[in-house]
Write a structure and sequence with these properties.
Length: 161
């Protein structure tokens, strides 16, 4: 049995459905749904978490943060390396290596104002992990051109790449 999801005018935090959520996104208006989703709640919680993670590269941090604030294309995420499980080497390429891996905990999708917790997507999903080992390779340029990145960016704590 599926519960009917309705559009709401206000969320419990007081956001309004006519507010602008993502000025650069094609759907600029805030979307508030009765199953607990509000674009502005999600955005505020993502911003609150900026202090909890860092790629150790301020330029990359800035790109990820901007993608979450503006919803440019899709949101990028900083993914802790420990979220990747069952890492298997697939191939080497000129800049590094490609692995398959399982996204153990998924990716934060939306803040749920009913559960007061994150809703995750892609939990347990198999993904391709590209490790860039060539230090001449400009990671900032790759990240800026992020239509080639589906989920986010991580750092291998042992190789620092
Ligand atoms: Zn809200």
């Amino acid at each position: 049995m599926s519960r009917k999801v309705e559009k709401l005018k206000y969320c419990p935090a007081g956001h309004f459905s006519e507010d602008f959520a993502y000025p650069d996104y094609f759907d600029k208006r805030n979307s508030i749904l009765s199953d607990g989703i509000c674009s502005l709640c999600t955005k505020e919680h993502l911003i609150q978490e900026f202090k909890n993670w860092s790629s150790e590269n301020t330029e990359i941090d800035k790109i990820i943060q901007e993608s979450q604030i503006k919803y440019k294309y899709d949101k990028l995420h900083w993914i802790p390396y420990s979220n990747f499980q069952n890492i298997n080497h697939i191939a080497d390429c000129d800049y590094g290596s490609v692995y398959s891996a399982k996204l153990e905990n998924g990716i934060k999708d939306d803040w749920n104002f009913i559960k007061q917790d994150w809703k995750y997507h892609s939990i347990g999903r198999k993904v391709a992990l590209k490790e860039i080992k060539d230090s001449r390779f400009d990671i900032v340029r790759v990240v800026k051109n992020y239509d080639c990145i589906d989920y986010g960016i991580s750092k291998n704590p042992s190789t620092k790449s």
